[in-house]
Design a protein that fits this description.
34% helix; alpha/beta; 8 helices
């Protein structure tokens, strides 16, 4: 892993790996910026839209700090997109286990109802993959989410070996899980009431998908 000589302006000044990590990502909004860039490459305006409580000047400051630390870079996309986006570097993606551990910690503390911005892709990243077991599988699992507006949204979790990638829905899925965000969040709490969902696919594929994603489903088939 690359190291960087750039020192943060503020530091805990402790010889401790936790403190050293917090020197880089411990400021307010930093982990949420990383969360957004883990979901997809983002324009500055995309980040502003996803983080409405974050002032533009502070967003600029946080992005510059992440770039100085080697965690974020900018990429110019070719036509027809022809735009500049922010992207996590390879080193930046090493923050993924931290975000997933935070999801497992924070789900117990969720209050209220999911917002309209909580998409299937967000659910896949924050309510599926943090519980993904290190079991080899070769499946395309489609999460179909009933949203707060009464519509449905979908994202695919592509399981390949022990890796996982969230993409837009494409082709035919091996397994389709249809539920809503609130039910999915409740199923991750302790004690879990189980997930109320419709699950389609062959018996073997369904069993493997639910095992790998650590889901205890009360199926509505």
């Amino acid at each position: 892993m690359a190291t960087h000589d750039t020192k943060p302006e503020r530091t805990y000044g402790q010889w401790c790996p936790i403190a050293a990590g917090l020197d880089v990502v411990g400021d307010r909004w930093v982990l949420l910026i990383c969360r957004e860039l883990l979901i997809a490459d983002q324009r500055f305006t995309d980040l502003r839209r996803a983080l409405p409580g974050l002032a533009p000047n502070l967003l600029t400051e946080r992005l510059r700090a992440l770039q100085s630390a080697g965690l974020v870079d900018t990429v110019d996309l070719p036509p027809p997109a022809a735009r500049t986006v922010y992207r996590l570097t390879q080193e930046g993606r090493t923050i993924t286990p931290v975000l997933r551990a935070m999801a497992r910690f924070g789900v117990q503390r969720l209050e209220g109802e999911p917002s309209t911005a909580f998409s299937a892709a967000r659910a896949a990243h924050s309510l599926l993959l943090p519980w993904r077991k290190r079991v080899s599988a070769d499946l395309r699992v489609r999460l179909v989410l009933h949203t707060a507006t009464g519509h449905t949204d979908a994202a695919d979790v592509v399981l390949k070996g022990t890796t996982s990638v969230v993409t837009g829905p494409e082709g035919e899925a091996d397994v389709t899980i249809t539920t809503d965000a609130a039910s999915l969040a409740r199923s991750r709490r302790h004690p879990s009431p189980g997930l109320v969902a419709e699950v389609s696919g062959t018996d073997d594929a369904r069993q493997m998908a639910l095992h790998v994603l650590d889901l205890d489903v009360q199926e509505r088939r």
